[in-house]
Specification:
278 residues, alpha+beta, seven-stranded mixed β-sheet, three-stranded antiparallel β-sheet, 9 helices
Length: 278
């Protein structure tokens, strides 16, 4: 986990690290079968902390609400402004992964790891099982494609039992950060629908997310995001999915005073050599 995330979420990570460093301490209430086996599974504690629930076997000082920590991280990365135009929503962390790599609080992934759609598990989120939901993959930084994926009319049972019943409004496009433009943010947003969304819904790839939320009467309930930087798969992905040519950028360093005057002297001397023959 990066240092900036540790600064944003200091108390939560202190609680988790306190458990790991205090396995053999008598002041933490662990119940052990053998010398090394503990009944307290730290992975389950961390998963429950992210979902905003309360793990019954964990000490009270360990369990923190993942929703509050996610909101702090969104404010730190300015995603709240760029996704929702500054509007506040109560969001819960989504459990998602690309292959074997988890999508966890803005971790770095390469575009080659995102060639296939992510696997999303939101069974632990406090959602209404009688309503339909929309899942959107969105990047506020990408100039070629902002809405990378749009699936609608998802119910909690469809995720496990009937994935073919999900309506795909926009097919999946992998991460395509352009070379020389830095790291891009990619967000998976789960939104609650007020009505059924047609598969013929016209969505622009470069549309703003907060406008789409307002137009289609959606309510964000969950989010996961990662970051990606350029690699060799960006060009083929742009050509295959968007029929676009890859653009590459580089930063130009401003000239120093020494270089400026050296160029001036060279041009002046060149002009003097030309005038000698006139």
């Amino acid at each position: 986990m990066s240092q900036c995330i540790r600064r944003v979420l200091p108390r939560c990570y202190k609680c988790l690290s306190r458990v790991e460093s205090s396995r053999n301490s008598s002041d933490v209430r662990f119940v052990k079968n053998n010398s090394s086996q503990s009944l307290l599974d730290l992975n389950e504690v961390h998963k429950d902390w992210k979902s905003g629930g309360h793990f019954p076997k964990a000490p009270a000082h360990i369990v923190k609400h993942g929703a509050k920590c996610l909101q702090a991280l969104l404010s730190h990365s300015r995603l709240n402004d760029h996704l929702f135009n500054g509007k506040q929503y109560r969001l819960f962390p989504l459990h998602a992964k690309h292959g074997d790599e988890n999508i966890d609080f803005g971790n770095i992934l390469s575009p080659s790891q995102t060639l296939q759609p992510p696997q999303v598990d939101w069974s632990s989120l406090p959602v209404d099982v009688d309503k339909k939901y929309t899942l959107i993959l969105y990047s506020p930084d990408c100039s070629s494609c902002k809405v990378h994926w749009w699936t609608s009319n998802i119910s909690p049972s469809d995720v496990i039992n009937n994935p073919d019943d999900i309506t795909t409004v926009l097919p999946y496009v992998p991460a395509v950060p352009l070379k020389g433009t830095g790291v891009y943010r990619y967000t998976l947003v789960l939104l609650e629908q007020s009505s059924v969304i047609s598969e013929n819904l016209q969505i622009e790839r470069l549309a703003e997310l907060y406008g789409l939320i307002s137009e289609n009467e959606l309510t964000p309930v969950g989010l996961a995001f990662y970051q990606a930087f350029w690699d060799e798969t960006v060009g083929p992905s742009l050509a295959k999915h968007l029929d676009l040519d890859e653009k590459q950028f580089c930063a130009e360093r401003p000239k120093s005073m020494h270089e400026f005057y050296a160029e001036e002297r060279f041009l002046r001397k060149e002009w003097e050599m030309k005038t000698d023959f006139m």
